Amino acid sequence: MTNAINWFEIPVTDFDRAKKFYGTLFNAEVQEMPHPEYKYGMLPADMQNGVGGGIVQGPGFEPSQTGSLIYLNGGDDLSGPLSRVEAAGGKVVLPKTSLGPNGFMAHFIDTEGNKVALHSMG
Question: Is 57:81 a contact under the CB 8 Å cutoff?
């Protein structure tokens, strides 16, 4: 097994607001994907060589600050995306924190009320 995670989905209540938030966070477009029951947007990822995921609005998808915590790729230095969290409408709840030789992490609340994290080596 290469990765412990194959795919992730972040629940949202306002798809357009969340699409704008995550587009700003990653400084990249969130690609809308057709789905018969849900509004779905894929976050930027190298789908040939890595793990991806998306935002989803629909029945059974409820944002939460409790439960599993997803760590999104903060790139070479998570300071970049972290600096865009509050301007995009989110809130930083744990600033950039050293993990020693394992890099850095930070936690934020997105516009939908989800607690999400970032990780980078720099």
Answer: no
Q: Is 57 in contact with 111 (CB distance < 8 Å)?
A: no
pLDDT in tens, 35-69: 999 999 999 998 888 899 999 999 999 999 999 99
Question: Which pairing describes strands 104-109 and 115-120: parallel, antiparallel, or unpaired?
Answer: antiparallel
pTM: 0.92
Tokens standing for residue 14: 């306002």
The upper half-sphere exposure of residue 106, i.e. CA atoms within 13 Å in the direction of its Cβ, equals 25
The CA distance from 119 to 76, in Å, is 9
Whole-number average pLDDT of the chain = 95
- 66's CB contacts (< 8 A; 6+ apart) are 115
What is the set of domains in the chain, with CATH numbers?
7-120 (3.10.180.10)
